[in-house]
Amino acid sequence: MNKAVYISPEDQASDDLAWMREALYMAEEALQNGEVPVGCVFVKNGQAIARARNRTNEWRNATLHAELEAIDHLLPYNPPPLSSITLYVTVEPCVMCASALRQVGIGRVVYGCGNDRFGGCGSVLDVSTSDMLDTNPAFEAVGGYLREEAIMLLRRFYMSENQNAPNPKKKATRVLKTDIPPPPSGTASAATSRSASAAPTPTPAPKFPLPIGGTLASTPRPLTPQ
Ligand SMILES: [Zn+2]
């Protein structure tokens, strides 16, 4: 049963959307580098403390999801629990990443589109809230933020030939679909997320570039027009 929680666009806070835009920049960079386009940024006290994007193809390492790369970078400077930190990620964290996020005690997760195959924040398993886990308290996970943009990035990736696939299909036969179905029925929520009801003074829009680091750090660059 799909337990993912989606926030209606009219209930989404502007600062959450601004940070999700930064996560989309990272996802766009992943796409430009032949990776499944997933990007993320971790935010603490209105500042980005780490950001990353998927690098599984580059390093031939299936665990190098954006979230885990960022966690590797930020943990030395931010010992768990990360209860004061919010993760913005373009796709619902998978079961592996959701488990890692729970183990480091993440405070809140805001994502773009759901992950119907591997989602660990309600779409497949609710690692984020299940009381079967006793590692750390449940964390809030809400989706639907710039969801269409996140989906279109994924579609553009799967439209192109995957050079790493054993039998890449010809893209000439493919058509980029632009219709976006609504979130899974029965899961849409008009619930106001924590941030939407928080401080009256909005967080300034994040400036580019943002701090990153570590040996896997990428070069910040703005989103280029298509
Ligand atoms: Zn993951």
UniProtKB/TrEMBL annotation:
Name one molecular function that GO assigns to this entry: tRNA-specific adenosine-34 deaminase activity
Q: Which reaction does it catalyse?
A: adenosine(34) in tRNA + H2O + H(+) = inosine(34) in tRNA + NH4(+)
Cofactor(s) this protein cannot do without:
Zn(2+)
**GO cellular component annotations of the record:** cytoplasm; nucleus; tRNA-specific adenosine-34 deaminase complex
What the entry lists under Pfam families is as follows:
dCMP_cyt_deam_1 (PF00383)
Q: Which family does it belong to?
A: Belongs to the cytidine and deoxycytidylate deaminase family. ADAT2 subfamily.
Record-given protein name:
tRNA(adenine(34)) deaminase
Naturally occurring in which organism (per UniProt) = Cutaneotrichosporon cavernicola
- Supply the source organism's classification: Eukaryota, Fungi, Dikarya, Basidiomycota, Agaricomycotina
- Gene symbol here is TAD2
